[in-house]
Amino acid sequence: xxxxxxxxxxxxxxxxxxxxxxxxxxxxxxxxxxxxxxxxxxxxxxxxxxxxxxxxxxxxxxxxxxxxxxxxxxxxxxxxxxxxxxxxxxxxxxxxxxxxxxxxxxxxxxxxxxxxxxxxxxxxxxxxxxxxxxxxxxxxxxxxxxxxxxxxxxxxxxxxxxxxxxxxxxxxxxxxxxxxxxxxxxxxxxxxxxxxxxxxxxxxxxxxxxxxxxxxxxxxxxxxxxxxxxxxxxxxxxxxxxxxxxxxxxxxxxxxxxxxxxxxxxxxxxxxxxxxxxxxxxxxxxxxxxxxxxxxxxxxxxxxxxxxxxxxxxxxxxxxxxxxxxxxx
Length: 329
Known about the structure:
The chain is globular. Helix 5 (104-120) crosses helix 8 (162-173). It has a 7-stranded parallel β-sheet, sandwiched between helices. The chain is built from 12 helices and 12 strands. Strand 4, helix 4 (86-91) and strand 5 (96-97) form a beta-alpha-beta unit. It has 2 domains: 2-102 and 296-314, NAD(P)-binding Rossmann-like Domain (Rossmann fold, 3-Layer(aba) Sandwich); 104-287, NAD(P)-binding Rossmann-like Domain (Rossmann fold). By secondary structure, the chain is of the alpha/beta class.
C-alpha cells in the first residue's frame, strides 16, 4: 500500500502547527500539500488528487468523499471527528482515525484557570494596581472583588471521562467535594467522587459546574433555561467541552439576570463567534478563544499520535480507527 501513497494533503495545519512544530516527519512520507486553512469552497479542489487527507476542523462531507477516487485514508488531528462523514468513508472502505488522548492535562489546566480567575480576579486586581488603586488605598490590603476559597465547595462534573476524571483529581487536591453525573455511569466512581443520579442534582447542588461530555444529537443545548434556573445564584458554569451543549441565549439571560454568578467558556456554538453573539457582552462571562487544547506540549502530542496513526496505516496496520474499517491488502 505504501507505494500507492502519492499525495498527502493537510487541509488546516495552522492551528496544530503555527510554526513552532515541524512537518519534516510528514514530508518524509510522500508529496505533501500543507495548507494553513481551507474554506469550504476550496476543499474539493485541494483534495481532489489526495490519497491521504489530514484535517482538524475542515469538513469532509459525504459528497466530497464520494468525489475523491484516489482517497484511501483520512486522519483527524483531534479527538472529535464529527467533521468527517465516517459512514460515507466506510462505504468507500476508507479508514478514518482520530487522536483520542492528547490534551487532558492542558484542558484541565484551563478549567482551573477559569475557576481560579473567578476566585481571585488576578488580572483585574493587577490592573487595579497598575491604575494606582492600591497606592491610593488607606489599607495594606486592597481587595476589589470578593475572594473565594475552593476548599469545602462542591464541583459538579458532567461527563466523567478522561478529562472529567482528571479535573476531579485537581478539585480533590483543593479540598473540594466532587459530584459527578455520567450518562453511562461507571461501575465505581473514582475515589473522592460522588455520583449523582441525574444532571439536575449536579446543577442544583454544585457551587461550580464543569462540562466534560461529548456533543451528541440528544444533548445539544441541554444546558437550557430550566437547568440554569436550578443553579445557586453564587454558582459558576465552566465549559471547555463543546459550545453547542449550551443554549447561549439562555445562558446570557441567566448571567444578565443574576441567576448565576458567572461563566467561564473556552468553546462557543459558532467559532469564531458572530458579531451579534450574546455571550461576549453578558455579565461576568469570561471567554477564551478555544485554546484549552492548544499548549505546545499538547499540540506536539497530537501531531505525534496523528503521525503514528498514519505510519501504522502505511505499514499495513491500523490504530485509532473510528469507523470500523481495517486495512485492505
